[in-house]
Amino acid sequence: MDFANILFGGPCNRACPFCIGKQLPAALGQNNLRIYPLRKQDEFVRRLQQSQVRQIVFTGTNTDPQLYRYEERLLNELRGQLPGAQFCLHSNGALALRKIDVFNRYDRVCLSFPTFEADLYQQLMGSPRVPDLAEILRHSRVPVKISALAAHVSSAFLDRLRELGVQRVVLRRLYGIHESVQLPQGLNLQGSYRGNPVYDWRGLEVTDWTFDTCESTSLNLFPDGTISPHYLLTRAS
To answer: Which residues contact 80 (CB under 8 A, 6 or more apart)?
Structure first.
């Protein structure tokens, strides 16, 4: 296994029309934002202790992990149970500044941030409130990677990220939709990661990420307590 996902479910502070959680059976994405410990948490930790997995991601099915009431408590407990492990937050960034102390307790963060433009952000995230990425980066003490939808990325967007000091970007293809996407011209192929091409954009690392063909493997704890070895959420059972 390459990494492990702890998945949260429940009401969200964004309403992304392309949320992959909407493709899940309802039971898998049930609300776990107010419970501690998580369902099957002890079993999940035991399996991690028995494995070589040292990358644990806090992410969501249909919500944002920073909405979890016990986020800091869970992170602290897992650090004690899994010494040497690295913890990553996958978030939309809406609560990043309000919870910056917890934000900085992770080893690294990936923010879903598709655009600086309020109108497009409303279209893609279901809210006109664009997080202040520049301010988040100013207060961050950990590396921050940006995740954006490939179909809506422009050269100006990549340049703005680079100017803000971002070093890594992931361009996501919509899961299950085989769309033709024209990436910005000027990307220079540098290699690949888990079957996905990695480019250079004027010093910015850009990965073209397709969930359908990704070669990564993971152990996933879903909100209902399901523990699945599948990276693709819709294959969980």
So the answer is: none
CA-CA distance, 15 to 176, in Å (whole number)? 19
Give the C-alpha separation, 110 to 232, whole Å.
18
Domains of the chain listed by start with CATH number: 3-235 (3.20.20.70)
Torsion sign across C-alpha atoms 74, 18, 228, 51:
negative
Say how many C-beta atoms besides its own lie within 10 A of residue 181's C-beta: 14
**pTM of the full predicted structure?**
0.93
Long-range contacts, 179-183 (Cβ 8 Å, 24+)? 179/151, 181/150, 181/151, 183/150, 183/153, 183/208
User: What angle separates helix 41-49 from helix 71-81, to the nearest 10 degrees?
Assistant: 30
Burial of 125 (0-12, 13-18, 19+ CB in 10 A): buried
**Model pLDDT for residues 148-189, shown as the tens digit of each residue:** 999 999 999 999 999 999 999 999 987 655 667 889 999 999
Structure-block tokens of residue 107: 């080893």
Residue 130 to residue 109: CA distance in whole angstroms? 18
Query: CA 11 to CA 64: how far, in whole Å?
Result: 9
| 97, 132 contact by CB (below 8 A) | yes
Classified as helix, coil or strand, 106 is coil
CA 127 vs CA 25, 120, 158, 205, 231: distances in Å: 25, 9, 22, 28, 28
